[in-house]
Specification:
The chain is an alpha+beta fold. It has a single domain, classed as Porin, CATH 2.40.160.20. The protein is built from one helix and eleven strands; from the N terminus they run αβββββββββββ. An eight-stranded antiparallel beta barrel has the order 1-2-3-5-6-8-9-11. β8 and β9 form a beta hairpin. The protein is elongated.
């Protein structure tokens, strides 16, 4: 019976790895398409920011990230990476009671953004896309997963050069995880976050 449980866990773990590899391939292919399309785009920018966001179950942590943008006067293709500090000693993980789980969360985002009011000093924007959640935890088996994100913010400054940026972002992703001898289940990670930093804009 114990051998059968180990075999079942091994098969589920292998299936999870296959799904994760496929998700990574899809994400990389989309990123490659953006890079190949970049010569046709008129401009873009680089954002460096600090974040403060919900990692899991209302556990908020500080983070740091960067975003590369390619596009024209209004539409931008964004590729971003954000890493958050480790959530230490979590006792509840998406409804699962546990003892002292340390959770690491990194988000890799790929999507589109629309900026309003070309040529103005203040430019609001909205965006959305895919979010790949890379999650690891101490004392808990957990995989990474693919989800979605949406954001709204503004950029303040000259059309070219250094701008100030601030935005609200909401990330959502489901990953497979289990604690102790419990069966694997879907676990939701991510949530609302604030990101503030500098945009280096070029055309």
């Amino acid at each position: 019976m114990y051998w059968l449980d180990l075999k079942t866990y091994s098969e589920n773990h292998q299936n999870g790895i296959r799904v994760e590899v496929k998700m990574r391939r899809v994400f990389l292919m989309m990123a490659a398409c953006c890079v190949l399309a970049s010569p046709a785009l008129a401009g873009g920018g680089v954002d460096l920011y600090l974040g403060y966001g919900d990692v899991v179950d209302g556990n908020w942590e500080l983070g740091i990230g960067a975003r590369i943008s390619l596009g024209g006067t209004h539409w931008m293709v964004d590729a971003a990476a954000t890493g958050y500090q480790t959530v230490e000693g979590a006792t509840i993980f998406d409804g699962v009671e546990a003892d002292d789980i340390d959770v690491k969360y990194r988000a890799f985002d790929l999507g589109l953004r629309y900026l309003f009011y070309d040529g103005h000093k203040v430019r609001p924007y909205v965006g959305a896309g895919l979010s790949y959640a890379q999650v690891s935890a101490v004392n808990m088996r957990i995989d990474s997963g693919l989800g979605l994100y949406g954001l709204a913010g503004l950029r303040v400054g000259k059309p070219n050069g250094i701008n100030f940026m601030a935005e609200l972002i909401y990330r959502w992703a489901e990953v497979q995880g289990s604690y102790g001898l419990a069966d694997e289940r879907d676990i939701t990670v991510g949530g609302l976050g604030l990101q503030v930093g500098l945009s280096f804009v070029f055309r």
